[in-house]
Amino acid sequence: MADNGQRAMEALLARHGFHFSKSKGQNFLIDREIPYRIAEASGADTTNGVLEIGPGIGALSCELCRRANKVVAVELDTTLLPILDETMAAFDNFSVVSADVLKLDLPALVRERFAGLTPIVCANLPYNITTPVLTALIEADCFESLTVLIQREVAQRLCAKPGTAAYGAFSVFMQYHTDPELCFEVSNRSFIPMPKVTSAVLRATVRQTPPVSVADEAFFFRVVYAAFALRRKTLVNSLTTAFGALGKEKLTELVVSCGLDAGIRGERLGLEEFARLSDALQAAEARS
Ligand code: SAM
Q1: Is the CB of 59 under 6 A from ligand 1?
Q2: What is the separation, in whole angstroms, between the first and last Cα of the chain?
Q3: Best residue among 29, 124, 125, 154 to mutate for probing ligand 1, ranked by most atoms within 8 Å of CB
Q4: Which CATH number fits the domain that encloses residue 86?
Q5: pLDDT tens for residues 247-262?
Q6: Which pLDDT does position 7 carry in this prediction?
Q7: Is residue 233 domain-shared with residue 200, that is, in the same domain?
């Protein structure tokens, strides 16, 4: 399967004089089964407007166009546009925005292109910008779900549970805003050029309301990022760097008042514990 796909793709790319760019994270899917499975995992149907990031030569775009009402794909590399004109010619529900996704006003794009549709994201992401792209997609606050092919290790981090080595500040960010689920793994042999790492498809359903309530979301994430800033230190020591004005004694008192062990590490706290700690810290800061 991958052999046929690879030969056809190589011939197409050669005809257009295309060269892969490492800095643009260009690893194209050659195993036709994978785009099919990613599009299925996204749940895209005729009620959806799908935002695809980095269509490449359209391997996933075709599968999305077969299911969704409309597919808008953002592509940074202008040398791919004539290739997409050819590969996507059969689909009148496909269009390309020639731009850097990180510089786009995503809510405006969604308003303009997806009126009356439920916007979702489905993409084989350029791995070098996974974190800023996911952050931007979540902060855009206009997508129902995000289905993305990313490095397996990153997907595991996003789904990681408290107390595990993979759990970090971005796991908390992701799990606060979405319900992430690792759908399936993808071998590096499914791409050209072949990446060094194994990949995985992650489907994150964006939450309508967060799973915990906090007095101040920005403050909550200040606490989360401070708690993970010094991974080998205790929570109290980590917090001292960001909330030092309260003093170590007061910080220890606050941690204990939240029902936590004075010597606990930040990586053991779940969303509930972070929420409790954030509200207690904010109240203490306001009093001091
Ligand atoms: N979807 C194709 C596939 O699955 O075969 C290609 C995926 S490839 C991993 C990533 C794609 O994202 C490339 O087409 C690359 O040019 C594009 N890209 C990289 N950085 C981008 C950015 N900042 N904004 C939009 N597209 C970008």
Answers
A1: yes
A2: 66
A3: 124
A4: 3.40.50.150
A5: 999 999 999 999 999 9
A6: 86
A7: no
